[in-house]
Amino acid sequence: MNAKKTHSDSAPGGEGRERPVLIKPARKRGLLARLRTYFLTGIVVSAPVGITIWLIWLFVAFVDRTVVPLIPESYNPSNVLGVSVPGIGVIVVLLAVTIIGFMVTNFFGRFMVKMGENMVSRVPVVRTIYGVLKQIFDAVLAQSEGAFREVILIEYPRKGIWVIGFITSNTQGEVQRVTPEEMVNVFLPTTPNPTSGFLLFVPRVDCITLDMTVEEGVKLVISGGIVSPPDPKAAPPPQGEEAEQEDAAQAERK
Q1: Among the four residues 31, 147, 166, 170, which has the most C-beta atoms within 10 Å?
Q2: What is the pLDDT of residues 166-211, one digit of tens each?
Q3: What whole-number distance in Å separates Cα of residue 114 and Cα of residue 111?
Q4: Cα separation, 87 vs 166, whole angstroms
Q5: Per CATH, which fold does 150-222 belong to?
Q6: Where are the domains of the chain?
Q7: Residue 216, Cβ density class (10 Å: 0-12 exposed, 13-18 middle, ≥19 buried)
Q8: What is the pLDDT of residues 98-113, one digit of tens each?
């Protein structure tokens, strides 16, 4: 049955009278259209879960193939239990890294690390690779203030085109000395691989700080703009009578 909506007649002498306006009901979708929607929805839900499990399994299998052969057979849980136990290599790596971290926290451990770094610094190629990797891990894992915690918009590569960037720290050293304005170090990631990108020195006044978190910004970059976080300051969607009036207006326009 067609829904009816009434409004006052604007014709002369028509005050107080209302005439019905027919609103066409929403067109029902066919079976194939509904099946297509269900299929795409299933892909959206199951694909991330399946790919995540698959990647974790590949990582665990790779670590097991690399570490388990190094374990003496008498201490290998798989040999003791008589069945293959997946994840043994990952557990061994976690324990080894934890023990190393515990050892380097005392004076003797710090002395050994310092001596090892001095030896590495004398090897031309190795010292460059080690220095770059150490700086990257220190920047990512250290709890330094403002590191990778601010999402911004900047105009790049020209005026009028905006990109997502991440402030890593305030610019220091010679770069800040030779520039007249206050600069910040901005990491500009690429899509869909955010581990590669560009380092930009941008004036602070040219950066627009966003309310989204770093995790939401990374999702936006990886998805190529498909997964866009909601705007916390946007007006809430209409509800109740306002939503019905908006739906009726859209149906009239169709």
Answers
A1: 166
A2: 998 889 999 999 999 999 999 998 888 777 889 999 999 999 999 9
A3: 5
A4: 35
A5: SH3 type barrels. (2.30.30)
A6: 150-222
A7: middle
A8: 888 888 887 777 888 8
